[in-house]
Amino acid sequence: MLKLLRARNFALMEDLTIAFDRGLTVITGETGAGKSIIVEAIASLCGERMDDISIRSNRDFAEITGVFETTPLILKRLRESGIHVDGDLIIRRKVERGKRQSSYINDQIVSIGLLRDLTREMVDLIGQYENQSLFNPKNHLSLLDSYAGIGELKRVYTTVFHEYRSLEKRLKSLMETVKQADEKIDYLKFQINEIEKAHVQPQEEEQLSAEKNLLLSSEKRSTLAGNLVTVLYDREDSVVENLYTIQKILDELTTLDPHLNEIKGRMESVISTAEDMYREVSSYYNKIEFSQERLDHVLERLDVINKIKKKYGKTLEEVADYLTTVEKELSSIE
Hints:
One of its GO terms (cellular component) is bacterial nucleoid. It comes from candidate division TA06 bacterium DG_78. This protein is of the alpha+beta class. It folds into 2 domains: 2-125, 3-Layer(aba) Sandwich (Rossmann fold); 204-333, no CATH class. 60% of the residues lie in helices and 11% in strands. The chain contains 11 helices and 6 strands. The chain has helices spanning 35-45, 72-80, 112-120, 140-148, 151-198, 204-216, 218-234, 239-256, 261-287, 292-312, 316-333; strands at residues 2-10, 13-19, 61-68, 89-96, 102-105, 108-109. A 6-stranded antiparallel beta sheet has the order 2-1-3-4-5-6, covered by helices on one side. Strand 5 (102-105) and strand 6 (108-109) form a beta hairpin. The mean pLDDT is 88.
């Protein structure tokens, strides 16, 4: 029960004190007399917002104090909140201009949430149009629950339902984590399989590139090597034939002047070198061949290597390192 209400500098009130007796108290007055302000003051005691608008003009603060009789339930709630009250319960609300509002119970500062919870057990504020809430469909379930007296059952159900929702959300999160892990495993396996299926070998790219160049230049190499064979041996006035002619001349000269024997020996070495060159070039020329099938295979392998490098590393060494990394990652996940 509210025993006393005091409002200082609140709205139009400078300093108002009202003492309430047991039973029904009726406050009457003309329009503008301040009846609604008294109700607003009581509402402020119950936790309604107070701000600069609540302060009387030319004043720096507004303060409302209410004295209530306590009940065993209220005393229990106060003790649970660490507030000890002997006798009446005194609630005080204060706001200073430009500052935040503050709330006190027996001069101990409290949160607005605690104040609202306590006063909800002591005060019911009902406006003149409160009955219209009956027509709002949003209120029908709560009114029906209240009439049925299942408030505690509803509270327990709400708690269990929220726990269920929390567990459901957690389960969904875990399932999503498992799904992501499975997708990661599939992706890693795909990468490992793609790299291993390519069967790339160290130095393979360099070897294939060199072979490609040889295959593409086979026609030109054959022409040049054939010309060299012809010049060295296979035509009249060839290099080897001219060297033999020179040797015959040196043979005659050495019979006349033995001092030329050294030059003759060197000529024999030149002829031997020229003949060796002819045999090697001729062998090279005979081995030159072009295979479109082999060229297609080389180009296909180079394309595979380039695709692997584009996805997994700039070089085949980097590709090999990446393969080792994903194999370790897959092993750690599985």
